[in-house]
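quick one, two chains, predict together pls
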Amino acid sequence: AQSVSQHNHHVILSEAASLELGCNYSYGGTVNLFWYVQYPGQHLQLLLKYFSGDPLVKGIKGFEAEFIKSKFSFNLRKPSVQWSDTAEYFCAVNGRFAYNTDKLIFGTGTRLQVFP
Amino acid sequence: DAMVIQNPRYQVTQFGKPVTLSCSQTLNHNVMYWYQQKSSQAPKLLFHYYDKDFNNEADTPDNFQSRRPNTSFCFLDIRSPGLGDAAMYLCATSILGGAQYFGPGTRLTVL
């Protein structure tokens, strides 16, 4: 069965620290990969996405992610976090499961807390 | 510039009293999704439409129904809400194969 694993459930950092959130997926076919962010009390927002091409993807707010096909991974990184990055981060995979359907498989999420 | 709009943002209902949540989109996307999200959990897909083709998740309770009268609108009907149905309900849209864009959600409280 298709699945997405986020190994870090809760990450606590100080401002200016570097961030790396792990994401591994299990799916044998062609995938699209996404990171979504959910700030406290707000809706899910697309942070970045990978469909094809350069495996290093840059998103909004200084985030980037690297797709490593051999490791089935799509880790999220930011060199220097800010207090405003405090949020829940979800990795998601989109694969074709039927002719006319697309479903996102979400990871369980990583809660990031950044302290000033 | 709102792209995926959900109404109402907050809904309070009584145990067993039917409720309808609505979603509209200005993106002209052909796929629309309904998710249930409980606190500190990932969104759980309930069902989705590709155009008018309805796709129900196997574990979505029969209590949940959906309608999509046209491209722009999609409704979630909860026929007899139970306490366990209290959650945030998220609507999302996409083109086939594209990223999903989420609305702000409707927070449902069941008394």
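The mean pLDDT of chain B is 93.
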